Structure to design on (632 residues):
């Protein structure tokens, strides 16, 4: 009950803050006071609800209860008296030392419980470095910092824990999580799944295409690749297995499709809002830049499952009881909140938090008035949405608070500038080598971390080096986000792939390797849009169209070569030729390939793919795609 009350307060406080209730009531409240309230509630819930192993517990132990009480009282006092504390910060009063110590210890233990040892270890390394920065040899030497000064800074300063990541998480992301929870409580999750099934189930390999489309729709709203896998995968993975896909491929498709949701507008696992804050640009610009790469990402996955179905003679999904017309007829009302959200974001150019609030009001209105297949929003469900939103935000708030520690250390020691210089100097003027090194660092640092934590950490550590080397800012930040998320499908810590393997009953490692093959385009796309910013809608529409077509041709050819099928099984020579032509077609301008040669390779690729389809050997037919005698 206590957790439910606190979670509800978190959600209500966010709504009141975004409608400017304190200002309308004539009360002046600093943003840091609001953040302290939310952080205090999140830490308290973490210790009341989860044990030392990070598992939910039936009752609160006395140690966790005491820690939760101390954290709650400390941060409520911080929220109450932050203005005076800020004025006295220069004199370093004992109150700030106590606050900093409590915040540092409880946040670190909280992320250990909820985010795992990887993020805990990374943040701990930075905190330890800060204590010994003045003794580090070479160019990474930093400013001397005592333990007291360290906790005062990272656990209190507005440039550390109470900086922009925590602000974005508690002000913007929380409302979008609320929006998503409302949508699913009103039947939106079933609507997405049914729409995907009706739209793609009647085509070759329809069971896998249902997974790709459904996970893309679900994942673009969801905030976590792993939660997307376990939510949609319990339905889509058995469906793919019954359809004829191997357990390994079924798990891989679900893992890759779910991970892509974090790279797809409008929400992108909350990274879009954090990116807009870091780059100080409108959210609309970030969402627009991410759109074409996301479409190309899913184009590659969708094409791959189609070609696997053709190669292995996997027919259409047999359940044709649902039609697109029927699904839209019953669930057309879900288009209203999305129309409100998109119009507010892209037409009226409202702030993301205001847009999410308006869309949430629209969901409440249509959810109460109209059901979907017997499921509608009710008062008990609405109550559960408030509780679910608050509890689901606990992990994210702890993670962005810990990311604030890292940002604080980088600022106070000067390490951020030193890291940029060291990385840039290490690779010299070789931009390709810099990108390769950065990609490896992103995958390693991103292992085991959720989207927002991955992005904030990499934006502070890796992105400055890329920008310093002359790479477009948005391209640099999307580059680190892509490779940070690729850790979800890259062994040895491929969390999304391993979660999918648990459902599919395939081997974890083989599912991870199959996920890398299925999502191969995601490892190439970042190099393409860094080299050709036109893919990020930077430049003329003609440049964007040409780059998009070239990339799509390259992805199609390489995918056909990997699978070994295009209208018929391909021999070694054709696969090698498609692989070569497809790679030459990709607009990665850093490679020593003339632009004219790249266009010629693209034309040759299209001609070869068309010839393979048209000139099949006599007697060879494509696999049967009919359902009950009807060709979809």
């Amino acid at each position: 009950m206590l957790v439910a009350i606190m979670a509800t307060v978190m959600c209500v406080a966010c709504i009141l803050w975004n409608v400017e209730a304190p200002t309308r009531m004539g009360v002046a409240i600093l943003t840091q006071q609001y953040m302290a309230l939310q952080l205090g509630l999140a830490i308290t819930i973490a210790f009341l609800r989860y044990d030392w192993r990070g598992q939910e517990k039936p009752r609160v132990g006395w140690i966790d209860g005491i820690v939760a009480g101390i954290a709650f009282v400390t941060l409520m006092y911080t929220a109450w008296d932050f203005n005076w504390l800020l004025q006295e910060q220069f004199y370093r009063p004992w109150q700030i030392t106590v606050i900093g110590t409590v915040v540092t210890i409880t946040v670190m233990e909280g992320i250990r419980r909820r985010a795992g040892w990887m993020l805990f270890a990374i943040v701990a390394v930075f905190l330890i470095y800060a204590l010994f920065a003045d003794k580090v040899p070479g160019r990474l030497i930093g400013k001397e910092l005592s333990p007291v000064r360290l906790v005062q800074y990272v656990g209190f300063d507005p440039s550390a824990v109470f900086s922009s990541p925590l602000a974005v998480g508690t002000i913007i992301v929380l409302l979008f999580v609320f929006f998503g929870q409302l949508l699913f409580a009103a039947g939106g999750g079933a609507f997405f799944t049914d729409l995907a099934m009706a739209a793609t189930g009647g085509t070759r390999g329809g069971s896998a295409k249902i997974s790709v489309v459904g996970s893309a729709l679900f994942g673009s709203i969801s905030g976590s690749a792993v939660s997307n896998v376990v939510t949609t995968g319990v339905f889509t993975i058995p469906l793919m297995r019954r359809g004829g896909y191997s357990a390994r491929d079924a798990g891989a498709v679900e893992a890759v499709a779910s991970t892509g949701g974090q790279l797809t507008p409008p929400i992108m696992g909350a990274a879009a809002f954090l990116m807009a804050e870091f780059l100080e640009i409108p959210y609309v610009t970030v969402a627009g830049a991410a759109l074409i790469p996301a479409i190309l990402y899913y184009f590659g996955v969708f094409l791959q499952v189609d070609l696997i179905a053709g190669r292995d003679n996997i027919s259409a999904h047999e359940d044709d009881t649902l039609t697109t017309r029927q699904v839209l007829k019953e669930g057309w009302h879900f288009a209203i909140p999305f129309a409100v959200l998109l119009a507010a974001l892209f037409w009226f150019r409202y702030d993301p938090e205001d847009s999410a609030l308006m869309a949430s009001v629209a969901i409440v209105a249509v959810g109460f008035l109209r059901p979907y297949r017997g499921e509608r929003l009710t008062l008990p469900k609405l109550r559960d949405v408030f509780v679910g939103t608050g509890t689901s935000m606990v992990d994210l708030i702890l993670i962005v608070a810990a990311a604030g520690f890292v940002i604080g250390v980088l600022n106070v020691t000067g390490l951020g500038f030193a890291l940029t210089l060291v990385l840039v100097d290490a690779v010299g003027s070789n931009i390709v080598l810099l990108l390769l090194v950065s990609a490896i660092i992103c995958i390693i640092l991103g292992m085991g971390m959720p989207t927002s934590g991955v992005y904030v950490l990499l934006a502070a550590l890796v992105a400055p080096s890329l920008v310093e080397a002359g790479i477009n800012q948005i391209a640099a930040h999307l580059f680190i986000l892509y490779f940070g998320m690729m850790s979800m499908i890259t062994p040895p810590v491929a969390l999304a792939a391993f979660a999918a393997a648990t459902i599919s009953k395939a081997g974890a490692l083989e599912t991870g390797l199959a996920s890398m093959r299925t999502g191969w385009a995601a490892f190439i796309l970042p190099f393409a849009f860094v080299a050709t910013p036109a893919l990020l809608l930077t430049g003329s529409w003609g440049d964007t169209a040409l780059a998009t077509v070239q990339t799509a041709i390259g992805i199609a050819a390489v995918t056909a070569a990997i699978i070994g099928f295009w209208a018929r099984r391909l021999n070694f020579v054709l696969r090698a030729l498609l692989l070569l032509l497809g790679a030459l077609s990709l607009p990665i301008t850093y490679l020593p390939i003339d632009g004219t040669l790249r266009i010629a390779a693209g034309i040759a690729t299209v001609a070869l793919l068309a010839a393979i389809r048209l000139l099949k050997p006599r007697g060879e037919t494509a696999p049967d795609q009919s359902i009950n005698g009807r060709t979809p």
Q: What stands out?
A: The chain has 29 helices and no strands. The two ends are 52 Å apart (CA to CA). The longest helix spans residues 379-413.
